[in-house]
C-alpha cells in the first residue's frame, strides 16, 4: 500500500503542478490553499482516470484536500495485488 500511496502522490503532485504552475505543489499541499476550485478538481480527476487508471471520487478531494491524505485514502481503496 505504501508504494501505491507514493505513486498516487506523485501523480497528484504532477497533475496539480500542471494546473497551478505559479505555485510549488508538494504532497503536503492543501489544494484549496493553492487556489484550486471545483473545475480544476474535475480536470485532475479526469486526467488521473484517463492517463493512470486512477479513479478518484470528486468528493474525495473535498474530504482530503491535502494531497498526501488523498493519496493515502485512494491507496486504501486499491485492491491488494
Automatic annotation (TrEMBL):
The keyword Phosphoprotein applies. SMART domains: PKS_PP. The keyword Ribonucleoprotein does not apply. Residues 3-78 form the Carrier domain. PROSITE patterns: CARRIER. InterPro entries: ACP-like_sf, PKS_PP-bd, PP-bd_ACP. Transmembrane segments: none annotated. Keywords: Phosphopantetheine, Phosphoprotein. This is Phosphopantetheine-binding protein.
Amino acid at each position: 500500500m505504501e508504494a501505491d500511496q507514493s505513486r498516487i502522490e506523485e501523480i497528484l503532485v504532477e497533475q496539480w503542478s500542471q494546473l497551478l504552475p505559479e505555485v510549488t505543489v508538494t504532497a503536503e499541499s492543501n489544494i484549496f490553499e493553492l487556489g484550486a476550485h471545483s473545475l480544476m478538481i474535475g480536470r485532475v480527476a479526469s486526467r488521473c482516470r484517463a492517463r493512470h487508471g486512477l479513479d478518484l471520487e470528486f468528493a474525495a478531494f473535498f474530504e482530503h484536500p491535502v494531497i498526501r491524505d488523498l493519496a493515502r485514502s485512494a491507496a486504501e481503496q486499491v485492491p491488494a495485488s
